[in-house]
Amino acid sequence: MSSSAAEPSFRESVDLMFDRAAALMDMSPGLAQKIRVCNSTYTVRFGVRLRGKIETFTGYRSVHSEHMEPVKGGIRYALSVNQDEVEALAALMTYKCALVETPFGGAKGGLCIDPRQWDERELEQITRRFAYELIKRDLIHPAQNVPAPDMGTGEREMAWIVDQYSRMNTTDINAKACVTGKPLNSGGIRGRVEATGRGVQYALREFFRHPEDVARAKLSGGLDGKRVIVQGLGNVGYHLAKFLAEEDGARITAIIERDGALVDEKGLDVEAVKQWITSTGSVKGFPGAGFVEDGAAVLEADCDILIPAAMEGVINLDNAARIRAPLIVEAANGPVTFGADEILRQKGALLIPDMYANAGGVTVSYFEWVKNLSHIRFGRMQRRAEEARSRLLVEELERLSADRGLGWTLAPGFKDRFLTGSDELALVRSGLDDTMRIAYQSMREVWLGRENVEDLRTAAYIVAIERVAATYRSKGL
Ligand SMILES: NC(=O)c1ccc[n+]([C@@H]2O[C@H](COP(=O)([O-])OP(=O)(O)OC[C@H]3O[C@@H](n4cnc5c(N)ncnc54)[C@H](O)[C@@H]3O)[C@@H](O)[C@H]2O)c1
């Protein structure tokens, strides 16, 4: 995305960020090098007969670190997919999983394809063939390598992949755990589709619980009324924009898409914009909002929070100096290049890094994987425990009221609702919320507690690298 000749590649950018953090740590250069490099990248070229001729596709599955297995990371469908990008994304997965303590190594996959050029039947053929190539080599496997959706893929592709794996491994009782982000009827979990956007919301809520941190971004108060610009109204961007607007009172003052940006200082109706894009294929012509042809220029507009949620490299050496947002939340992976990161820091902007901000997806993927392996509806066990706790609480309230002659009565229906316990979605949400709070605390401790650590990204890298290093130290290389 970035155009300056001085800009490093995406993978180099991730490595430079790693080096900046590692230089502040007490770790041997040899171990740092081992953690930083990508273990392996598999390239596959395969042919599929489509529309009367043979089309050749190129795909990748990169494994960055197997310090824990399975390795985990999405599969991206885009024409821009290449080895450098897949390796950068795989490395970020290693650090992300370590930061939020999901017990996975890091991986990523990609297929060079514009999914909009093919119809559903053709996409199924292509996906099954790509999956076949990866399954054959254990690059999709419940115990070794578990993909998930990323840009250009979703539940539909994951359903084809799990079905393909099941056909090729008919006796594997854990087949459903070979991929996450599946539809519910293929072994998915409630709350996975929205999980990354929900995680961004929880990350922001946690940030705004710390007034000193908010002040460092030259902001004050909470999320209510904050002016937010979102780039990319796909899976991640749509959910986070909707939740922030509908549940936290934020104003989405601009939505930037591929073909332009919509702007409205009063706040855009996210649901209406999404429906418009779905029905017309574009943001153009959306009624009642301003339209800017050069969408990328809107990244530089005045706002409180800028959330790039589309792709990497969009804030780079060319535009970083003109970015006005005091707070930038990396919902996408790698939207800010290494050079841009330095410029933003010098300007005093505060950045919540990708490996933390968008970790909601992999966190809920972990819950889905555990659900598949345990062969029991997620939360059935916890539900029993919660019901028992709730029952004790209600009994205690009733006893207190009777003892003291208070005459308290519980609202009609309340007791029943209270005693039903939590459903799967509530458990997923509370597990995700806990994860985002705890990870923020661990990052924050390093950010504010250690000398020479100036920013949350470096802090996040330090926490992640320390955890990966600890695993290597205890189990050996
Ligand atoms: N899906 C997940 O669970 C997940 C998890 C973690 C991180 N991410 C990251 O979030 C980002 C978005 O992923 P997604 O799953 O939402 O993808 P998606 O394909 O669902 O949506 C991407 C959106 O961005 C738009 N877009 C693409 N290029 C753009 C550009 N140059 N300018 C403006 N808009 C553009 C697309 O039109 C689309 O609406 C990626 O960086 C991905 O790696 C996704």
UniProtKB/TrEMBL annotation:
> Which species does this protein come from?
Ruixingdingia sedimenti
- Which Pfam families does its entry note? ELFV_dehydrog, ELFV_dehydrog_N
Alphabetized, the UniProt keywords read: Oxidoreductase
Residue ranges of the Glutamate/phenylalanine/leucine/valine/L-tryptophan dehydrogenase C-terminal domain? Answer: 189-476
GO MF, one annotated term: oxidoreductase activity
| Residues annotated as transmembrane | none
Kindly provide the name given to this protein in its UniProt entry: Glutamate dehydrogenase
The family assignment reads: Belongs to the Glu/Leu/Phe/Val dehydrogenases family.
